[in-house]
Write a structure and sequence with these properties.
Helix content is 93%, strand content 0%. It is mostly helical and 86 residues long. α1 packs antiparallel against α2. The longest helix has 53 residues. The chain is rod-shaped and about 80 Å long. The two termini are 38 Å apart.
Amino acid sequence: MDEETTRGYEVVYREAIRALDLQRNAFDSLRARVGFLLSAATIATSFLGGLALRDRSDTGSWIAIFLFVAFGAFALRRGGARLQQG
């Protein structure tokens, strides 16, 4: 290969790396925002779920609590798997 072709490949490679870095940064930012939103929803659910069960305990309340526990278990399992990979 001649020098001009090699230089062209280097430019394309650097731009690809830069694009991947931008995507990683955007994904990390999105992950942080979603994590904050889910933690706020979890705290609100835990307080409001307790109040809902104290006043009356119907099927809808138990379904909500089951979904809350299932989501928590899923989030802990996924978080543990992510920590082992990273």
